[in-house]
């Protein structure tokens, strides 16, 4: 009995030690890649540490090996996006979830994209096209880019590049989201686009626009017009504009 008791006690100590290591791992998780690495394989809402404070994020652990932090998601237009102010975009808004609409926040995006040894990988996923008579409705498109943004004192300026080695069927590296490279972020209350009407009249904000540009995934979901630069749109394959039904943007470090 003494031997069995000793074995039981040893097992309890080992279990407690493993539990402490497990909890410490979670406490030290800096992003969804860490969450995935520590054994959490389900997509969902998790807590990470950002500058020594807890932050909730939505992790996609399904696509392409998992470990993605979802930074933008639009499903049905219930959240306007285009008219949110600078501070709202900095903090983030909406509700985290698998089928909800939200912006994770420029502060979070800045810190996550600057954790990486190299630039982070941005994956943009698009579904459908609400443009009348579109042949792209019902289609899925996805493309990956190299991506990071600057801090607030540099206006969350975007750095985004096309890499032919990354997968995708939405872009060719020309006349796409990479056209926004080096643009500062604009919102309805802080416009850094030389054409102010792009943000307010065409309802493209908040986004990295310059003379409106060729993509704005945070624009008005139900624009005044389709195909004429209004609202949420994406230049598909550098050829024609689509107004997606659903969008998702997510990031992880580019290995």
UniProtKB/TrEMBL annotation:
SMART domains: FBG. Residues 1-25 form the signal peptide. The keyword NADP does not apply. Keywords: Signal. This is Fibrinogen C-terminal domain-containing protein. The keyword Signal applies. InterPro entries: Fibrinogen-like_C (IPR036056), Fibrinogen_a/b/g_C_1 (IPR014716), Fibrinogen_a/b/g_C_dom (IPR002181), Fibrinogen_C-term_domain (IPR050373). Residues 23-255 form the Fibrinogen C-terminal domain. Pfam families: Fibrinogen_C. It comes from Bursaphelenchus okinawaensis. One of its GO terms (cellular component) is extracellular space.
